[in-house]
Amino acid sequence: MPITILCVLDVCPVTIGDDVMMGCNVSLMTPIHPLLFEERKHYVNAHGRLTDREYAKPIVIEAGCWIASNVVICGGVTIGSESVIGAGSVVTKDIPRGVFAAGNPCRVIRKITIEDSIYRQKDLLQR
After folding, report:
1. Stated pTM of the model
2. What is the dihedral of CA 40, 46, 51, 54, to 10 degrees?
3. Which of 8, 21, 33, 93 is catalytic?
4. Is 33 a catalytic residue?
């Protein structure tokens, strides 16, 4: 039996709406690290503790979304309600409501319409 893993690195808020589905190995990553090497180096803060300059941006996944397997959602992203994110995508920017988006970086492929109804798909296996 496969192991389903959801990784939420929540340095700040992660909001997940009602009726959201997620596949295996989804990662929700709010932390953001500096790009400049000098800003990534550890330092001793005012309390005498070794630390780094990590900061974060929130993630919002609105109601009715489907996040397929192996998707990474980066901090600062909002995924609009009823959207579908394709397997293996890396979401770095907001995705609007009611679309299918996929890729690395993730981009909108098309709007979801009534033609996408499972009942209109003649090539699907029935059980």
Report:
1. 0.88
2. -60
3. 33
4. yes
